[in-house]
Amino acid sequence: MKDKSIVPTQREKVMREDDFLVSRTDLKGRLTYGNQIFIEYSGYSEQELLGQQHNIVRHPDMPRGIFKFLWDTLHTQKECFAYVKNMSRDGSFYWVFANVTPSLDAQGKVEGYFSVRRKPKSQAIATVTEIYTNMLDAERRAGPRDACDASLAILAGLLTQKGVSYESFILSV
């Protein structure tokens, strides 16, 4: 369970160039595996992470719409890429470029999800920070019931304006 007493700080943990944060979850998003680098950045012990929702590291600066988009994409058995700002147990944050894929069993049925995150490019962080700020503002204005739709409308408008798909945009940032 996410500890609501954790207060976000302005302290950033910058990933090393050769870092790969790896995790697996079950179908409900509960952590079943985290590599040592993921554990290091999260600030939790392996025992504290396993069985918890992956959103235990979710930073409040992340729009809900991004996670709705991610889950909607995964439910179509497609991979999803996203820039994500995570929060460590001590309130510090770290940015990742995530690739999340469905894990399939021998019959081709989704049995969980696999995520590999690496260090994002600094110019990408600047770009998505502005977009995420606009998405969060839309979520706040819309209220909890309509937050995701309002947030995703901001993202859809941006993609339409640029004339690109989400994947083309996110991989080009």
Report on this model:
The protein has 173 residues and is an alpha+beta fold. 38% of the residues lie in helices and 23% in strands. It has six helices and five strands. The model has no long low-confidence stretch (mean pLDDT 96).
Q: Can you give keywords for this protein?
A:
173 residues, alpha+beta, Beta-Lactamase, 5-stranded antiparallel beta sheet, 6 helices
- The CATH homologous superfamily is termed PAS domain
Helix content: 25-40%
Counting DSSP H or I runs of 4 or more residues, the number of helices is 6
Query: Which parts are unreliable, with pLDDT below 50 for 5 consecutive residues or more?
Result: none
Mean pLDDT, all residues: 96
What is the CATH first-level class name? Alpha Beta
Pairing-aware structural class of the strands and helices?
A: alpha+beta
- CATH-scheme architecture: 2-Layer Sandwich
Query: Which fold does the CATH topology refer to?
Result: Beta-Lactamase
Q: Measured on Cα atoms, how large is the radius of gyration? A: 16 Å
In whole angstroms, how far apart are the ends? 33 Å
Question: Tell me about the biggest sheet?
Answer: 5 strands, antiparallel
User: Order of strands side by side in the largest beta sheet?
Assistant: 2-1-5-4-3
